[in-house]
Structure formats: structure tokens, C-alpha cells
Automatic annotation (TrEMBL):
Name the record gives this protein: PEP-utilising enzyme mobile domain-containing protein
GO molecular function: transferase activity, transferring phosphorus-containing groups
InterPro entries: PEP-util_enz_mobile_dom, PEP_Utilizing_Enz, Phosphohistidine_dom_sf
Gene3D superfamilies, sorted: Phosphohistidine domain
Naturally occurring in which organism (per UniProt): Nocardia jinanensis
The PEP-utilising enzyme mobile domain, residue ranges: 417-484
Record-linked SUPFAM superfamilies: Phosphohistidine domain
Length: 495
């Protein structure tokens, strides 16, 4: 990996396209992410995807083929983490129900510009040398998938028990020196992959059920706002509890759908909500894992600084995971400090950039000029929105609200107004009871903050490009959570 990380490190042929979308990463990686955090996560994502294929009993030859794309599910540009979208389509194709999964994937992302159907059909996680082998393998894999899907409740109980056991052991450990911390880190890394791999079936089940909800909504409820399909599978649906403000999809359904159609719709959406709640529980487990990993990293940082491999302990964040492993498995790279200095400079330069929600690249090498053409621009060069200008994103929570914008790139107290934020950082959840509306630049409609906003009935629009650059604190804006628009009513803010 070169000094400054750009992309996923994938050996892409010249002219070969890649599509990058931030919705899969915006909640886990809000804002700029360090090289170490990115490469640790990218490595785990890739190996968890491979383990998922193995758990579905995909043949060994085909599991081996996934090595050509699973390590590259995530990419980093100017420190922002994006999902390598075409590979996420491939991941959705490991299990059954690919057409429904594709349909749901863009819905989960909240994307308005979908991947062309012919492109989606061409994306296969692996190939077979004969049609007979492909059909036989698909039938077997489908059977394994269904067995696992039918025992999700038991799987979740087993996961929680084993995850707690693993975490309890590490949380009680004191790391006496860098070698010890490194050995325990490698052990934890392997255990997490084995734990999380089988649970990826939940993501596939959620995609399939979400695709079914979308299809049923479009068939039975063609007039329903787009945000309704997200409300229909919100977490509280799984328990039968009302939203905090009593906002209920049932109210809408009672007046629009009945009979067998209503029974079928409720059956699918409640199951989808239950599985989505389980999936969110697994995602929340990552925070506990990070809390265990952090003291290991800090001990290694102190050790490497004491050995003069690093100038200071904080420099460890500017290593890749491969470089960190190299410091313990073999002789450290001679120009490590040069790489760290280059990455620090790149981090400082990236701070003032506005990042696109989705963009595309071709080939392995991507220049600053090419990224600028895709929407990366200094925030200072983006003029504020004018009166009457309409910013368009994705409808997330139905509702119409007008009020002053409160633009916040970093977490801080917001006591009133319409919150306009750069990322879907879960920490923003605490501010939601105090705000009248929510605009999110990076993050999809099923992120934690968007989901809680839906429970609270806060009109929300997500995936609004350049929202924090074009909108200024004090502008009076209108947020329409049904149409996914943000309209500037008055006040251009400071130039």
C-alpha cells in the first residue's frame, strides 16, 4: 500500500469502473477515518464475507474465488470510507434471492441513482465450470441458507453468549508489553471473524425481506411515500410497541389495506423488522469490540515509540494494519516515518473538503483532479445556497417543517432548530428530542440516527450532497421528509 491511501488497494484494470457509496460506511465511519482504523475494518469485512460463503457451504473452489473481491469491499478517499458498491452486489449474490436483494440494497442505501439492471445481473460472486455444478451448488446453498434463516433466534442467542464470553475474557486482560498486546490482537481478530461470519446471513435475510416489503408496497400501496417503507420495518414494529410519538404505520395501513393482502404485508414487514433489530444488535457489538481493541493498540503504540519505530505513540493511527503487523512479524518498513508524515499532511488537507455521497472511478489510479471532477471540492469554494434553492436527497421520515438551520459538522449541543449534519454519527441521537427537523449529508435512511428520528417523528432527509457547505446556520429552510427536499426560504448566511 502506498503512502497515501486511495481506494481499496484493488488491482483494477485500466478503464474498469468502480462505484463508491457512503451509505454502507457513514454510520460506522463518520467523518475522516485513520488509516489504521480503515484497514483493520476493511480486513475484517473481507474475511467475514469469505466466512459467510464458507458457512453457506459454498464449494471450496468458489470460496477461493471470492478472494478476488472480498478484501476490497471498502475504500478510502481523502480519509472518508466508502463501500465498493459493485462488490456489495456480489456479496448479496452469495445467498439466494439475488433479484430481491439487489432491489433492497439500493433501498437500504437510500440511493436515488440505481445501478443499471444489466450491470447488476452481470455481477457474480463466483463462477462454475458447468451449469450442472452451478445449479447443484445453488440448490445446496439455498437449503443451508434456509436452515440458518429458520433458526435465527437460536443463532442470536448463541452469538450473544459466545460474544460475551470472548469479550469478558479480553476485558479482564492487562497487556504487559507490545508483543503480548499484538498476539492478543491477532487472536481477537480471528475470533471476531469466526463469530461475525455466520451472522452475515442476517444481512441477506434482511435484504430479501426488505426487497419483499418494497415489492409489496409498490404493488399494494403505490401512493405510499417512499419514507413509509422504512417506517414499516422500524425496530418497534418487531415488538408491537408504538413509536415514541405514537406515529404508526398501522394507522396508514388501516385506511389503505385489508384482508389477505394486509395479513401478508404484516407478516413480511414484522419479520423484516425483527431481523433488522437483530442485525443492529450485531452491529452494536462492534462498539464493544473496538473498546477491547483500543487498549491493545495503545500498548503497541507505546512500545513502538519506545523502540523509536514511531516518533510518538499517536503515530500508530497513521499506520495500515499490514504495516503494524510488519513491526512485530518482521523488520519494520524503513520509510515508515516518511509514510506517516505524508498521511498526516493528507489528513490536514482533507479536513476542508466536501465529499460526494456517491461517485465513480475507473482503473486503479485516481488523481486529485479526477476526484474533483466527481464532486470533491474545498468547502470554501462552494457558495451558500440562495433563496428558493432546493437541495434534493432521500426521503427518510415523512413530515414538513420550517425553521432556522443549525449546521454542525462536529458533535455539539443543539437545543432547537433544524439540525444539518455531515454524518450519520450515532451520537447525534441524543440531540433529536431537541430539534424540529434533520438533514444528513452522509448516511442512509436505515442508520441509527435516521431510524430514531423516524421513531420520534422528526422530519428527515438524508444523503443531501453538499448540505453542510451550502446551508449556513441561521438560514430559514423547509424540510420535506416526504419528497426528500430541503428548500432555502431566506438568509444566505455568511459568505
Amino acid at each position: 500500500m502506498t503512502a497515501v491511501i486511495r481506494g481499496a488497494g484493488e488491482p483494477v484494470a485500466p478503464g474498469e469502473p468502480r462505484i463508491w457509496d457512503d451509505a454502507t460506511a457513514a454510520q460506522t465511519f463518520p467523518g475522516i477515518t485513520s488509516p489504521l482504523a480503515f484497514t483493520v475494518a476493511a480486513g475484517i469485512h473481507g474475511r467475514v464475507a469469505r466466512e459467510y460463503a464458507r458457512c453457506l457451504e459454498v464449494p471450496d473452489d468458489q470460496v477461493a474465488q471470492t478472494d478476488s473481491w472480498t478484501p476490497y469491499l471498502l475504500g478510502s478517499f481523502h480519509g472518508r470510507v466508502y463501500g465498493n458498491l459493485l462488490h456489495w452486489y456480489r456479496l448479496a449474490g452469495i445467498g439466494p434471492g439475488y433479484r430481491l436483494n439487489c432491489r433492497a440494497l439500493e433501498e437500504v442505501l437510500g440511493a436515488t441513482d440505481r445501478v443499471p439492471e444489466e450491470v447488476a445481473r452481470s455481477l457474480s460472486p463466483f463462477t462454475f465450470d458447468s451449469r450442472v455444478r452451478r445449479v447443484r451448488s445453488r440448490l445446496w446453498t439455498t437449503g443451508v441458507f434456509l436452515r440458518r434463516a429458520l433458526r435465527i433466534e437460536a443463532m442470536m442467542r448463541e452469538f450473544r453468549t459466545e460474544f460475551d464470553r470472548v469479550c469478558d475474557r479480553y476485558e479482564g486482560t492487562e497487556y504487559v508489553h507490545g508483543e503480548h498486546a499484538y498476539a492478543e490482537y491477532r487472536r481477537l481478530d480471528r475470533e471476531l471473524v469466526l463469530l461475525w461470519g455466520p451472522t452475515t446471513v442476517l444481512d441477506s435475510v434482511v435484504l430479501t425481506l426488505m426487497g419483499a416489503v418494497v415489492a409489496l408496497t409498490e404493488t399494494y400501496l403505490p401512493e405510499a411515500p417512499r419514507s413509509f417503507r422504512y417506517a414499516a420495518v422500524r425496530p418497534s414494529v418487531a415488538t408491537g410497541a408504538p413509536g415514541i410519538t405514537g406515529i404508526e404505520p398501522d394507522t396508514y395501513l388501516d385506511g389503505t389495506l385489508g384482508g389477505l393482502r394486509r395479513r401478508l404485508y404484516d407478516l413480511v414487514r414484522v419479520r423484516a423488522a425483527r431481523c433488522a433489530a437483530h442485525r443492529d444488535s450485531i452491529r452494536a457489538s462492534r462498539a464493544r469490540a473496538v473498546g477491547i481493541l483500543d487498549p491493545m493498540i495503545r500498548v503497541m503504540a507505546g512500545d513502538l515509540a519506545a523502540r523509536a519505530v514511531l516518533r510518538e505513540p499517536g503515530d500508530i493511527d497513521y499506520l495500515t494494519v499490514g504495516e503494524l503487523c510488519g513491526c512485530y512479524d518482521r523488520v519494520p518498513i524503513p520509510d515508515l516515518r516518511v509514510r506517516i508524515a505524508a498521511r498526516k499532511a493528507a489528513r490536514a488537507a482533507a479536513d476542508g473538503l466536501s465529499a460526494p455521497v456517491r461517485f465513480s472511478t475507473e482503473g486503479a489510479e485516481v488523481s486529485d483532479a479526477q476526484l474533483a471532477e466527481q464532486g470533491w471540492a474545498p468547502c470554501t469554494q462552494i457558495p451558500p445556497a440562495r433563496d428558493g434553492e432546493v437541495l434534493t436527497g432521500t426521503a427518510s421520515t415523512t413530515g414538513l417543517v420550517e425553521g432556522p438551520a443549525v449546521v454542525a459538522r462536529r458533535l455539539r449541543d443543539v437545543s432547537s432548530g433544524i439540525l444539518v449534519t455531515e454524518s450519520a454519527d450515532p451520537d447525534w441521537v441524543a440531540t433529536l428530542p431537541s430539534v424540529s427537523g434533520l438533514v444528513i449529508e452522509h448516511g442512509g435512511p436505515l442508520t441509527a440516527v435516521a431510524t430514531v428520528a423516524r421513531e420520534l417523528g422528526v422530519p428527515t432527509v438524508v444523503r443531501v450532497p453538499e448540505a453542510t457547505a451550502k446551508l449556513r446556520t441561521g438560514m430559514r429552510i423547509r424540510v420535506d421528509g416526504s419528497t426528500g427536499t430541503v428548500t432555502v426560504l431566506s438568509g444566505v448566511g455568511p459568505e
